[in-house]
Design a protein that fits this description.
elongated; single chain; about 270 residues; mainly alpha; about 5% strand; two-stranded antiparallel sheet; two-stranded antiparallel ribbon
């Protein structure tokens, strides 16, 4: 029915008749940290070829055992390779999917708790820190609507040491470079999308909306945009899309399990996308 040469998988058909998927599944097992066989102390590690032979034998002859050892490393499309209707296989499939749902919920809850703590501490989700991470988005939703007095009030005039001034200058320079990069990317995208005759119309509309070089909107609208900016940054954090944050400090940290978040409706808006 099948043959192997030098440990290479050559079987044509698996439980679902998909040879390429079978190869993919076995390779996933070989590259995993799953258990292949009991070894004595001092015995050399298994080679990739030996692992492939063991994984192939298990997949062909004991698929339920294969699932118990390597199922957690497989994607959903790879799990679909295994036939349903067998009690033991169905049991392991159910266990794998249940663990994934539990783990996914656990990670969300930990991120939510971390986000609440950081928001309350007033640093990571402060205006200045969010501006440093996303200068273009901040300028579009918050910064361009600040008055000159508000801008000046954010300048720390109490610490005039040279080292502090130099550090502040370096941070501003870095922020400006990130802003320029993000702005250039956005401009390129918009340039490809807009009609050629729209530029002059947009400029005239912009000039009519500006006064003293800064757009003017109501205080209510400013508060709404600022709130939306914060919510957007929080949602990005929850989704794992904040490239400035090391999620390994939260996702696997049991210290964030102290709160029961499962049944709190207030959190659902952060989880909807998943």
């Amino acid at each position: 029915m099948h043959g192997r040469m030098n440990g290479e998988v050559t079987k044509e058909d698996g439980p679902q008749g998909n040879a390429s998927l079978r190869v993919e599944i076995i390779q996933k097992a070989v590259n995993s940290d799953g258990h292949f066989k009991h070894q004595q102390i001092g015995e050399p590690d298994l080679t990739a070829e030996e692992k492939m032979t063991i994984a192939s034998d298990l997949l062909d002859n004991k698929p339920a055992v294969f699932l118990s050892r390597f199922g957690k490393y497989l994607l959903e499309k790879e799990l679909a390779y295994f036939p349903s209707g067998d009690y033991t296989i169905d049991f392991h499939m159910s266990q794998i999917r249940r663990q994934r749902l539990s783990s996914k919920s656990e990670v969300k809850n930990r991120r939510y708790e971390a986000m609440k703590q950081m928001t309350a501490q007033g640093e990571y989700f402060s205006d200045e820190e969010m501006k440093r991470r996303e200068p273009l988005l901040y300028e579009q939703m918050v910064g361009q609507y600040l008055s000159e007095d508000e801008i000046q009030s954010k300048v720390d005039k109490t610490d005039l040491r040279f080292s502090s001034i130099l550090m502040s200058h370096l941070e501003i320079t870095q922020d400006n470079e990130l802003y320029k990069t993000q702005k250039a990317t956005e401009d390129d995208d918009l340039e490809q999308m807009k009609p050629e005759d729209s530029e002059s119309e947009e400029e005239s509309e912009l000039e009519s909306e500006e006064e003293d070089g800064r757009p003017k909107i109501s205080d209510k609208e400013r508060a709404r945009l600022k709130g939306e900016f914060l919510l957007l940054m929080q949602q990005r954090f929850m989704a794992g899309d904040d490239e400035h944050f090391d999620y390994s400090h939260v996702d696997s940290n049991e210290a964030y399990d102290c709160m029961d978040l499962v049944n709190q409706d207030a959190e659902e808006k952060y989880f909807d996308e998943d």
